[in-house]
Structure formats: structure tokens, C-alpha cells
Amino acid sequence: SNYLIEAKESLLMLINEFTEKAHKKKKTVSICGELASDTSSINELLKINIDALSIAPALIPEIKEFIRSLK
After folding, report:
1. For the CA atoms of the chain, what is the radius of gyration?
2. Is the pLDDT of residue 12 over 70?
């Protein structure tokens, strides 16, 4: 639904703001859980310069392949 899309966009904006502030203080930012393994969000998270994604081990090959396909 549009509500979920707007909520996700707002969440990514908040993560972006947080990440910028954290990086200015030389802190790393990691994302875990479903958002970290959601292929529709990963590209945006990479643009935000998230330092690490924490995902279920079973998903690592799939997510690595997806990230490589973005370049």
C-alpha cells in the first residue's frame, strides 16, 4: 500500500540523517533485521553509506550477489 511505501521512505530519511551525524562523530552504523536483507531497500542503504548490514547467514550469498549486480 502507499502508506507502507511512504513509511519506508520516511524511515530511510531518518536513517540517512542519523548516519550523517554518526559518521561526523566517527561512529559506524549497522542495519540488521528484515530491512538489511530487503532487496528493495539495500540500494538506498548503500547510497546512505551504511557501514554494515547484518543478515541471516542463509541469505548472505543471495544478498552478496544482489549487491554485486548493482555496480
Report:
1. 13
2. yes
Please name the residue that has the C-alpha cell 548490514: 53
The reported pTM is 0.82
* 37: Cβ contacts below 8 Å, ≥ 6 apart: 53, 55, 56, 59, 63
Kindly state the cell numbers that stand for 36: 538489511
Angle CA 35–41–43, to nearest 5:
130
Q: Is 53 helix (H, G, I), strand (E, B) or coil?
A: strand
State the Cα–Cα distance between residues 55 and 34, nearest whole angstrom: 8
